[in-house]
């Protein structure tokens, strides 16, 4: 089992999860984070820290797309181990449906 970052992280990109991760398994894209499934130790400390409720255990049904996306982009994006400020408009995007099709960016973030 691993945890995965899901659609609600897109354009929200709160980083409370990064701050508590004991194994630094988060990777930063331009407008979302992902978890490297081979590095995650399934401790679960990140899940309750996410204000957008965007982190889920991969055992929940319907997360196959997100597990694949997390795996793919964790190998392409830079590692992030320190919390940064969320985008100024994050609250406006929190809970919005259909963000992947409209807003997902495959571009890397800056990392540490």
Shape: globular
CATH architectural label: 2-Layer Sandwich
Mean pLDDT: 96
- What is the level 1 CATH name? Alpha Beta
At the fold tier of CATH, the topology name is Alpha-Beta Plaits
For the biggest β-sheet, the strand order reads 1-4
- Estimate what percentage of residues fall within beta strands: 5-15%
Overall domain count: 1
Number of helices: 4
Low-confidence stretches: none
Terminal CA distance: 26 Å
Please provide the ordered H/E string of secondary-structure elements.
EHEEEHHH
In helices, the fraction of residues equals: 10-25%
Structural class category: alpha+beta
Q: Please summarize the sheet with the most strands.
A: 2 strands, antiparallel
Can you put this structure into words, describing what you see?
- This protein is of the alpha+beta class.
- The chain has a single domain, classed as Alpha-Beta Plaits, CATH 3.30.70.
- The protein is 22% helix and 11% strand.
- It has 4 helices and 4 strands.
- Strands 1-4 form a two-stranded antiparallel ribbon. The chain has a two-stranded antiparallel sheet with strand order 2-3.
- The longest helix is centred in the middle third of the chain and has 11 residues.
- Keywords: 3Fe-4S, 4Fe-4S, Electron transport, Iron, Iron-sulfur, Metal-binding, Repeat, Transport.
- Its cofactor is [3Fe-4S] cluster; [4Fe-4S] cluster.
- One of its GO terms (molecular function) is metal ion binding.
